[in-house]
Design goal:
The protein is of the alpha+beta class. It is about 20% helix and about 50% strand. It has a 16-stranded antiparallel β-sheet that branches.
């Protein structure tokens, strides 16, 4: 909890760099000057490339579609792909500077599907953070199987399966090197406008905890029910009854992002970060930091990734666009491997109002 508090404090400090000088609290004159310099240096941008936000408030309507998928590879080159139905959320948001509040209706929950998910991305000029939490429900389908048997592969495709459970929670923290010319907020939080194309190298770190549980007895019984008695024994390893994996992932990442201004007020962004992650099983025998480092093994180093893309039209007063953020994690052992991908696609339209003090004075002088 202490680490989470420090993380939130760090992000809040970073985001405060987006505030103007008239929001700085009253402090002694010398300290005020130093604090202002720190804030301004942190949020300083080249206005030939980035136009800062002129308004204090915004209202927005946003649709969020969530996707996830899990590819499991077993012995004998067999594989199974699990994926739930996408979830759809729609609702209004109200924002003050960098703080957004909103309420969305989850149309899938109207069907009483037990599924929990939280995804929050915060973007400041120099740093950004993704926070996520996901817990699966009971709406998974078998999207595809490969058991080297055509009858099995065809019979089990697109079938509901309630013996699969997963959860993920964690954060990604990253630093934007060319922050004075390249703006992540322009592409994903609409708090600035990118006026000239620019890119930036990225570096970051992440921490996450993952849980995956498969009831293979139920899976094999489903195979027998759909294809015929004795099928599972003939084509699958029925000695494997369950898979219950809990692991922690610590990683360092690097990547690149580019904002392409292809027309006035239009922006297309694409970015990719690859991470070298260390996977440590958690449980009774590995439940603290000492065990984590004592049991270090290079075989536990694996590649993960984060991909972002977005297109937005923004004339500073009105804005509209779409964006997507996807995370990929890999877990590999000699007889079992898992690839998990999850993310959100956003479609939105919004309106800014309430000129900031400095811009209001310029407007009144005109």
């Amino acid at each position: 909890m202490r680490f989470l508090s420090l993380l939130i404090l760090f992000v809040f400090t970073a985001l405060s760099g987006m505030a103007s000088a008239d929001t700085i609290p009253a402090v002694p004159k010398k300290k005020l000057s130093a604090f202002r310099r720190m804030v301004r240096n942190f949020s300083r941008v080249d206005t030939n490339y980035i136009e800062p936000q002129k308004y204090n408030f915004t209202v927005m309507l946003q649709n969020t579609t969530s996707f996830e998928g899990y590819t499991l590879k077993l012995a004998d080159d067999h594989s199974v792909v699990f994926s739930p139905e996408p979830s759809y959320k729609l609702g209004p948001y109200f924002g003050w500077r960098f703080v957004f509040l909103g309420y969305t209706i989850d149309f899938k929950r109207l069907k009483n599907e037990a599924r929990e998910a939280l995804a929050l991305s915060l973007y400041a000029p120099q740093v950004g953070v993704d926070l996520f939490y996901r817990k699966s429900g009971d709406n998974y389908r078998i999207r595809g199987v490969d058991f080297k048997n055509e009858a099995v592969n065809n019979a089990m495709r697109k079938v509901y399966f309630d013996g699969f459970e997963t959860s993920e929670r964690g954060f990604n923290l990253y630093y934007i090197f060319n922050h004075n010319k390249f703006s992540y907020p322009a592409a994903y939080s609409q708090s600035t406008v990118q006026r000239r194309s620019a890119g930036s190298a990225l570096a970051g770190m992440s921490y996450s905890r993952h849980s995956l549980d498969v009831d293979w007895d139920r899976f094999h019984q489903l195979m027998d029910d759909l294809v015929g008695p004795g099928t599972a024994v003939a084509v699958a390893d029925t000695s494997m009854h369950t898979t219950d994996i809990n692991y922690t992932d610590l990683s360092l990442s690097g990547g690149y992002a580019y904002n392409w201004v292809f027309a006035r007020n239009w922006l297309f962004d694409i970015s990719l970060q690859l991470a070298l992650g260390y996977k440590q099983l958690t449980g009774k025998a590995n439940n603290n930091a000492k065990d984590f480092f004592r049991n270090f093994d290079f075989k536990n180093l694996m590649i993960d990734g984060v991909e972002r893309t977005g297109i937005v039209w923004n004339n500073m007063r009105w804005y509209a666009g779409a964006s997507a953020v996807f995370h990929t994690y890999n877990y590999q052992k000699s007889k079992f491997s898992a690839n998990s991908t999850f993310g959100n696609v956003y479609v939105y339209v919004g309106y800014n109002f309430g000129l900031k003090g400095s811009y209001r004075k310029k407007h009144n002088r005109k």
